[in-house]
Design a protein that fits this description.
3 helices, two-stranded antiparallel ribbon, elongated, 29% helix, alpha+beta, single chain, 26% strand, three-stranded antiparallel β-sheet, 129 residues, 5 strands
C-alpha cells in the first residue's frame, strides 16, 4: 500500500488496483469531500459484516432486498460499543435468525478487532519518491 498527500487535509491510499481517498471534515480543516479515515474504518466493519450476510442469503436463495443492517457506534472519539441490528421482513425465514447473526462472526474486520496487531513504524530518509 502506498500513501500520499494530494493536498489540503486529504490522504490517499493506493492499494492493489484501487485508490482510496480520505479527507477531514470542514470542522477540522478539510473539505469533507471524502470520508475521514475513521469513518472508512467503521464502514469497513459494516460492509464486511454485510458481505457475510449477503453470502448467507445468496446461498439460501433469500432475496437481498428483504435484509438490511443498521449500525450504531457508541463512544467519545473511540468506539466503545458497536450495536448492530439486522433488519429482515416477513420473507426472511425465522429459522435462520441465529445463523444469520453467526454469519457476521466470520467478518475478518470484526475478528481483527478482537486481537490487536503489533505496529512497527520506521523512517526511511532515502526513500524514492
Amino acid at each position: 500500500m502506498k500513501i500520499d498527500f494530494p493536498g489540503g487535509k486529504k490522504v490517499r491510499a493506493a492499494y492493489k488496483d484501487h485508490i482510496i481517498e480520505t479527507d477531514q471534515s470542514p470542522a477540522t480543516g478539510g473539505e469533507g469531500l471524502h470520508p475521514s479515515p475513521f469513518d472508512l474504518f467503521k464502514a469497513s466493519l459494516g460492509t464486511c459484516m454485510g458481505a457475510y450476510v449477503m453470502l448467507f442469503c445468496e446461498e439460501r436463495n433469500i432475496p437481498l432486498d428483504c435484509v438490511s443492517i443498521d449500525m450504531q457506534f457508541e463512544g467519545d472519539g473511540t468506539i466503545e460499543n458497536v450495536n448492530t441490528q439486522i433488519n429482515v421482513d416477513e420473507r426472511f425465514p425465522s429459522k435462520y435468525y441465529r445463523a444469520l447473526v453467526k454469519a457476521t462472526e466470520s467478518c475478518k474486520v470484526k475478528r481483527q478487532l478482537k486481537s490487536s496487531p503489533v505496529f512497527m513504524t520506521t523512517v526511511n530518509p532515502k526513500a524514492d519518491r
